[in-house]
Prior knowledge:
single chain; mainly alpha; 11 helices; globular
Amino acid sequence: FFYFLLLLAERLFQDKTSALLLLLSVLGIYLGKSFFWDLQGWFDGIAFFFLIMAMYYRSPPIQFLCLSIAFWTDERAILASGLIWCWWKIQHYQTENLNFKNLVQIDRVSLTFIIAWASYLDLRFWLGNTFEMETPMGDAGAFGFQRWEGIIPALFTALEGVWLLFIPIFLGIKTHRSFWFLGALLLGFLSVIIPALTVA
């Protein structure tokens, strides 16, 4: 995971020092630490690994395989994959040329994501209806707002100092006046962070 994160950061920044600094910052937050302390069968690190593979590889069959494995490892990955959709749109159009029409336009990469989502959801619903293999909700299961008092601290400590990276992101969006893109990023962020915080 860390190796491919470093390669992606180098591809993005075109600068080894910035890529290394990003890697070092990730090591200190949950994303990085989960590979070392998540030893009780929750498998977050496996889902993270296959999501970053879907960001690294451009081949649709490899992307489909990586997305599918991530989805079946942790269902929250299906929500996080929406941000990877945005990642590939930025790679294709560049930020200054990206508009809402381009973001939702169906191309080769988008089709791969749609097929991966549909395949997962179809099989998930079939297993649920046929064999009653469903995720329990609320107090009976691992999903639900059972610890309200921990949500605000968890929200702010999840990214720790990496929150500082949001400052240049927001400044760049303001400069390009891409407020619709800011809305898309916030929607994607909330779709990932809220389910993550509801897992007890």
